[in-house]
Protein 1
Amino acid sequence: MEKRDGFQSKWGFILACIGSAVGMGNIWRFPIMVSTYGGLTFLIPYFLFVVLIGATGVIGEFALGRSASAGPIGAFGKCTEVRTGNKKPGEIIGWIPILGAMGLAIGYTVVLSWIFKYAFMSITGQLFNLGTDMGAIGGMFGATAPETASIGESVSVVLGGAGNALWLVIGLVVSLVIMALGVAGGIEKANKIMMPVLFFLFVALGIYIFTLPGSGEGYKYIFTLQPGGLANPKVWIFAFGQAFFSLSVAGNGSVIYGSYLPKNESIPSSARNVAFFDTLAAMLAALVIIPAMAAGGAELSKGGPGLMFVYLVNVLNGMPGGRIVGMIFYIAVLFAGLSSIVNLYEAPVAMLQERFKVKRVPAVAIIGVIGGIVAFLIQGYTSQWMDIVSIYICPLGAFLAGVMFFWVAGKDYVLKNVNEGSAKPIGNWFYPLAKYGYCILAIVALVAGAALGGIG
């Protein structure tokens, strides 16, 4: 029997999982949520939900994958086999999170092409040459992202044509090369470099931004508590959504990475580290972006791509040392994007290996070609595509993973696999909190997302 690839070290696994969790949500959505809902007023419920989801859903998905040494299809099948002796129903349901991972990866492929282009332009100085002319900056983003976008009160462009095809291919090829090298030889090694560098770059940016006149207003805002705001249900809903989606519980990426984790590693400890460093990355992004916008005299009133590719470019180009800051920022964002897309494509790649016995390199090539073609075709509808996948399919995948592991496989199976490799067993609080609390929260993520047009 061919030996299954896997992570070679605890920190290799943790850094890869951090890489999967640290994505665009940390960079272009978390700061705007902190700004919109009042600094600490948003952060307090956010931290609470990170602890809750990290201590239930993240642990559960890691253990689910490791218990079966398989991705969602094999892992779900194992759960129904434990309960009924028949793995077929679980395997059929397991296709849903695979489709979610593939759909999100395709959308991310388009976004990664934007990031590659902006990183290149920041290094060559083209981005800095745009100055603070919002028309020119908006026009550049318009030439990059082929969809109709409003990027400010006075700037609205209709984007079309072939879009960003060259950068889409470049970003996809780089991602696929990392994956083709294997779990240990590609994904683990790449994240061991990219994640420490990403954190170092954000810390360096944070220190520089701290020295700029006017940045103090940004810090003051972040750490101001408005007690009355905690009575606003939307603060709690969006804080929950940010935590839920940031921790990448969707029944796919965390399950497949968990399946590569050695049996002698502690899953609760690994989940704790992933939750901590993912939150740290989000905080570092907020501590860079919000004070930078304050120093530039800009109002942080819009999130999404416009924040990172339009408003922030305007601020960076107007600040002392902005060219260097911009270059460092977009390189850091590039690492975040690469690590996330590699995780998303890994679930369908592993599926081809497990279900159809396709070798690693051909499996990566097949998924890459499919992903690249679809990504090229959806460029004009990236936002709508991502909404459908993230609002409906991802939380559904998280809910199904929770049900399969905590409800179908049952308490004995869950505790055996969660505790494997740990020095001491997890507390009695874990199973009921995960079975009832986490699964209910996954339903809330689905329903609230559908009702509000997305919460994460």
Protein 2
Amino acid sequence: MEQRSLIERLARHLAMSEPESWQDRVEDAASLLAILKTPDDAMREAGDDRIWQAMIDAALRERWAVAPASASGEPPGGTDEEGEISLPPHGVSGNPAEWVHVHKPREKQ
């Protein structure tokens, strides 16, 4: 079997009942990866959480490489970690792995 990116493997797993539509599950896979980005206590004890987060960011950047273009011609998007804010590939700086801080803080500093 050829080597596939983590996000593609997750999307294919999520589409097991309809294997030909795995590309439709790429955003679901990205959402799962976003949830996994913040390690829990047991994970922190096992290793460096900064390395883990960098690895998840790298996996998240792959979603635009494997996701198909939509019928409207719009690039595939994503959402923030909570799934509330829609993010296109160019939505946050030049780094597609950035998920949060799309608005300036309202707090006075």
Protein 3
Amino acid sequence: MPDIRIDDLAEPRLTERQRAAIDAAPPVTMTVEAVLDAARAATGLSDFGADDFRERLAIWLASYDEDRDLGALGRATLFGECVRYASARLRIEDLWRRHPEIAAVAIDRPIMVAGLPRSGTTHLVNILAADPRLRSTPLWETMEPIPGRDDVGDPDPRRARTAAMWGAFEEMLPLMPAMHEMAPDHVHEDIELQGPDFSSYLPEWLSRPARWRDHYLASDQTPHYAYARRVMQALSWLKGPARWVVKSPPHMENLPALVAVHPTAIVPVTHRDPVAVLQSAITMIAYGDRIRRVRQDLPALAAWWIDRIEVLLRRCVRDRDAVPAARSIDILFHDYMADQKATVAKVYALAELEMTPEAEARIDHFLAANPRNKHGRVAYDLAGDFGVDVGAVRERFAFYYDRFPVRKEAVPGERL
């Protein structure tokens, strides 16, 4: 299969389907009460729990208003995400109020994978989640973690809604699965469980929310990890088991908060050349931005994410030892790709999990069904598409190369 080359990132050639979706986007008002009123109407509930989230939601919304290049569909999408999170928050509070025994659920020795975006974290957590002894967050459940009172039956109606929604999304952006598949049963990031508390770096993937980014980076994330743990308890109470496997890149920049909330956590940390990470991540974002934004500024997008990845990695280097060595392992991407089962075996040993015949069979099945580049391989061009000086970026990340022996991956026009 030839490489996929996306040659219209700067000046997208929109399809009729994309234009129709943009034209059909409803106007939205980015106010806290508009979001909360919509969530109340969607759920029939009214108790959001502690009110501190309102300030963070207000910053999210102000950041979206200040992002002048967001188009109508981008704004409607972000407003809809806020309503989804607020609706989830209502259902979480309702479930806890009706079932206070959820507090007794123990989240013990969760396996919490950290690592850069595009560094194999999604693939690794999906391999581990094939083991039925571990609880995870499939995409359909992260979209709607707590069922509504009418969500009964098998299959779960929430799964059907997620499949339909992401199916339509991938029809609109057909190259997206080659960069990041969103199958309803694949494990998604657990920072989605912080979404109902309106924290994490989630807004940065769909917009350029400068006000929120600055607030997030200046704030202790421990309360929001505690909130996500509360959601994990509820999910285990609804459907066990109670030992979890999750993953998310921001764990790298929040290791002290993660350990404070999960003192028994097992933390595998994946490491990959940040230049390779950047070219993959920002190409994926730029491809999606064609339906979200009215103007594409690729150098600005690259600058945003070079800055963000640098902050994330500097915090990882600074705080890496916050996780006790006996409960953590560094996984180099090139070693992981060379022998995935050996990497999995190391994580199992660290987590003191026996590799049972059933677990191994399920893992083998997942690996066979999900080879690398299953949906095609995208050809990236960090310098040509985004105007990035790759050598200068490597110099900025010298601190990371010095700390972790990742293998540098050549990009177009570069010799290593």
Protein 4
Amino acid sequence: MEQLVDIVGVNIREIRKQKKLTQEELAEKCGLQTSYLAGVERGVRNITLQTLEKIALGLEINAKELFELESPLIKLALEKQQLLQIFTSYMQDKSEKEIQLLINIANNIFETYK
């Protein structure tokens, strides 16, 4: 189910950008709060079919377009989600000390390559 929420969110964001709409503009057209729409685009909001319909109308598209899997961004989002799930499952049996060590190492690497 999480993948579907991610797919719809990425598609909303990409179609909104293609139509040169800001989140604020689309939210206003749909009668939604901007922060709510932002959560939908990030895949952290599990929306109702009524809300999906409002967004599709606001984007002036058929709602089925929000479920398309063709976008390269969708494929990247799914791959990232799968990698995060693998990483999370790998960390489940590690101690708090090991996890903190890994976080510190990751932070050092990210700081080095900023």
